């Protein structure tokens, strides 16, 4: 599963989501972090929305609905598993 996390240095919500994703062990996750301040298009699109998580499938990104900051690692994993099962 290839995930893209649009993030910004110093964003506590972004850091929290990244930590949760890195703790998931039951799914094979390739996590790509995209720092939005390095690309004007990303910044314009996501500056008020981060963290933004996308599932990359066949070269296209599918937006994953925002997780609650209170979601546990197991809850995040369960949702990602369901998304992966849908293909």
Report on this structure:
With 87 residues, the protein is of the alpha+beta class. It contains three helices and four strands. A four-stranded mixed beta sheet has the order 2-1-3-4, covered by helices on one side. The longest helix is centred in the last third of the chain and has 14 residues, at 73-86. The termini are close together.
Q: What is shown here, in short?
A:
With 87 residues, this protein is α+β, with helices and mostly antiparallel strands. Helices cover 38% and strands 26% of the residues.
Query: Could you tell me the mean pLDDT?
Result: 92
Label the overall shape: globular
Give the strand content. Answer: 25-35%
Secondary-structure element order, N to C: EHEHEEH
Largest sheet: 4 strands, mixed
Distance between the termini: 10 Å
Q: Strand order within the widest sheet? A: 2-1-3-4
What is the helical fraction, as a range of percent? 25-40%
Radius of gyration: 12 Å
Low-confidence stretches: none
Structural class: alpha+beta
Number of helices: 3
What is the number of beta strands? 4
How is this fold's topology laid out?
Layout: E1 2-7, H1 12-23, E2 30-35, H2 40-46, E3 52-57, E4 60-64, H3 73-86
């Amino acid at each position: 599963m290839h995930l893209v996390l649009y993030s910004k240095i110093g964003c506590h919500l972004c850091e929290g989501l990244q930590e949760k994703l890195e703790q998931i062990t039951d799914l094979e996750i390739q996590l790509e972090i995209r720092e939005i301040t390095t690309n004007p298009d990303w910044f314009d699109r996501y500056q008020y929305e981060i963290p933004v998580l996308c599932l990359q499938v066949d070269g296209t990104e599918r937006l994953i609905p925002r997780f609650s900051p209170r979601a546990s690692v197991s809850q995040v994993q369960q949702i990602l598993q369901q998304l992966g099962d849908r293909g």
